[in-house]
Write a structure and sequence with these properties.
11 helices; 67% helix; membrane; transmembrane; ABC transporter permease; transmembrane helix
């Protein structure tokens, strides 16, 4: 399993697109946090506030998750790219399954590689975001204490689960377009699932709306989901997607 994981990590990190994912994952949250911090500093200077409010930084990390969405998608979609004629015109998936005949172990290795890369990106993004907020707001910056550690852990869990959600969707579809469109749009500034909570409270149990509670308090959607329960709900969605994706992957001709 360690050899398979090392192979999948090496393969994932060799993809040109991974560096786009890394850039998005590392830079988006700090940039948004910087913009929000300058806005907050302006309001503090004008006397509107005396100190920055809690969501600065953590709120921005909800958008940086787009980087790990790309990681989860390309981890499996890259296997289906047709190689050039000079390389034989085949697909990577054929070579991968020849080297690792167990399809379940192959997918477990993929999931472990995606989770590892996503967790590392989350930790880097969290660190940079906190530093940016502290540098800009200085003494006005929100204090991060013991009580915020669970929120920071929640960010890492949210990023990892989101990446695995993207992986599961891509395993089912075998294409990057649909998961990329659905997940990127839904984590942009217009969150479709958030709008759905205005129509039905059941939308609170969709994976992203449940999971986001691990890092942010959302009080206007008619739900009392706690961060822990939200994480459990999101993990259940991810488990189901990966389970059915694995069944489909094992049954079909690649």
């Amino acid at each position: 399993m360690k050899t398979a994981l090392a192979a999948e990590l090496s393969k994932l990190l060799s993809l040109p697109t991974i560096w786009i994912a890394v850039a998005v994952g590392i830079l988006v949250a700090p940039v948004i946090a910087a913009i929000r911090s300058f806005q907050e500093l302006s309001e503090i200077t004008k006397g509107v506030h005396t100190a920055a409010e809690y969501p600065i930084g953590l709120e921005a990390l909800g958008f940086g998750v787009q980087g790990v969405i790309i990681v989860g998608i390309i981890a499996i979609s890259s296997e289906y790219f047709t190689e050039s004629e000079e390389s034989g015109g085949g697909r990577q998936i054929t070579t991968s399954l020849t080297a690792n005949p167990s399809r379940i172990r192959f997918l477990l290795s993929k999931a472990a590689a995606v989770a590892t890369v996503s967790a590392i990106l989350a930790i880097i993004a969290i660190t940079l975001t906190i530093i940016v907020v502290q540098i800009i707001l200085v003494e006005h910056a929100p204090a991060f204490g013991i009580t915020d550690i669970s929120r920071i852990i929640g960010v890492v869990c949210y990023w990892v689960l989101t990446a695995l959600l993207a992986l599961g969707m891509t395993i089912l579809t075998r294409h990057a377009a649909l998961p990329l469109a659905v997940l990127i749009v839904n984590t942009s500034f217009v969150t479709v699932t958030y709008l759905l909570t205005r129509i039905t409270p059941l939308a609170n149990y969709l994976p992203d709306m449940a999971g986001i509670r691990m890092l942010l308090e959302i009080k206007d959607t008619g739900s009392t989901l706690t961060p822990l329960l939200g994480g459990v709900v999101m993990a259940a969605w991810v488990t189901a997607l990966l389970f059915f994706g694995t069944i489909a992957f094992c049954r079909r001709d690649v």
